[in-house]
Amino acid sequence: MSEKLDIIVVGAGVFGLASAYHLQKKNPSKKILLIDRLADAGQANTAMSAAAVRNTFSSRTNQILTDTTIDFYIDVQENLKFDLDLQLVGYLWLLTEKQLADPLNKKWMEKMDANKIKYELYEGENLKRKLPELSMKVSDNEEARIMNLEDIKAGLFGVKCGILDPSKLVSFYKNEFARISKVKPMFNTEVEELILEPPNKLGVPGEPFIWQDPSVVGVKTADGEIRGDTVVMAAGTWVNKLTDPTGIDGRVKVKKRQLFRVSTEGSQSLKSILNVKSFNKFNSLPFTVLPRGVYLRPVRQEESFWVGCADKLNRPFKYVQTEDDWKSEQNYFEQSMYPVLSAYLPAFKDVRPASGWAGAYAYSYDAVPYVYKEAGMIFATGDSGSGIMKADAVGRMVDALYRGEKTTTLHGGVKIDTGTLSIGNRKVEKEEVLI
């Protein structure tokens, strides 16, 4: 591309899309290029996501980011009439007696109370009536005891939480950006390298030198260089691949995550769990989190569940995904997830997944996203598996940072310091409630 651009957004996942959209909306005269290595927007980890949304975090920052983003999605669907297939079916965290008494979880609930995050606590028989298929007492089962599974005492139900269709969310941002953009997005175009240059090149071998104050002025692809005044780095789990050669710290660590599709076909008990009528107006199971991190996402339109797990230990950190990392591991479902799933929900006994897929989380050290400037770039990354539920707020913060605004106005008029998610002036609480 020969023309000089104002902004290059690297990565067309949900963070990149939301950033490109809000940047173009607030800076209509700017030439903004959205670039991605895949054939279309949102085809990498955004597409592989469980696509759930919740505001039930312990960190006040995460509460603000998610609460305002969910409100925006509600507005898009109800007032802009763009169907995101957003269904606020709720989040149901099933808690053992030990978890219920844990000071961290008590503090979590106190923080939600203080910040008016709506939730309900169902205990004992009340929970059992709502979800009859749930086996709350597993301690008398020898296999469960071997796995150190404990009895369930309560369910914490997040009200403004639920699920959406990630492809529809991608379509919304992509279409709205295309409608106002001056530059056609570039897909099937991999950024191979960042261009790091000083403001005044001397033509001396070895440039740039440290005293030249170099910055990133564009990107290199197989087809040549693309230059812009600002590069927005929204490449998710691939950030380090691009920043490491420049000596810039991408600050994310990457872990593989997997989802498996379990069909309800032929099982009335599984259909009863999927279509439980006691939690929401959709007569749907909430997004449900079992002990040990195994979770179920209802997919009623295809009469199935997506089942996942956040396996933190014995799962290596990796910078960049390879083709093998996109494949699910059948033995992981059978050996790690299935025993927990079938112990608490016996209807899943002898059930095996019809299919599976994998993606990855780009973790930040405190499980709160990064939005900051460095070396001519604005970083929007480190979503820690919650990119969809924080995307709109992050996109607005990227725009405010670009325009030099000290305060970002999120959806609904909520104000937040633009430097909140930065590195040097970071003002966040570490997130304690992760799946």
Number of strands: 19
Mean pLDDT: 95
- The separation of the N and C termini measures 42 Å
Rg calc: 23 Å
- What top-tier CATH class of the largest domain fits best? Alpha Beta
Number of helical segments? Answer: 12
Largest sheet: 8 strands, mixed
CATH topology of the largest domain: FAD/NAD(P)-binding domain
The portion of residues assigned to helices is 25-40%
Strand order of the largest sheet: 5-6-4-12-13-14-11-15
Number of domains: 2
Strand content: 15-25%
Flag low-confidence runs: none
Keywords:
single chain, 435 residues, FAD/NAD(P)-binding domain, D-Amino Acid Oxidase, Chain A, domain 2, 2 domains, 7-stranded mixed sheet, 12 helices, 28% helix, elongated
What features would you describe in this structure?
This protein has 435 residues and is of the alpha+beta class. It folds into 2 domains: 186 residues, FAD/NAD(P)-binding domain (3-Layer(bba) Sandwich); 177 residues, D-Amino Acid Oxidase, Chain A, domain 2. 28% of the residues lie in helices and 24% in strands. The strands form 4 sheets. It has an 8-stranded mixed sheet. Strands 1, 2, 8, 9, 10, 16 and 17 form a 7-stranded mixed sheet that branches. It has a two-stranded antiparallel ribbon with strand order 3-7. β12 and β13 form a beta hairpin. The radius of gyration is 23 Å and the shape is elongated. The relative contact order is 0.20.
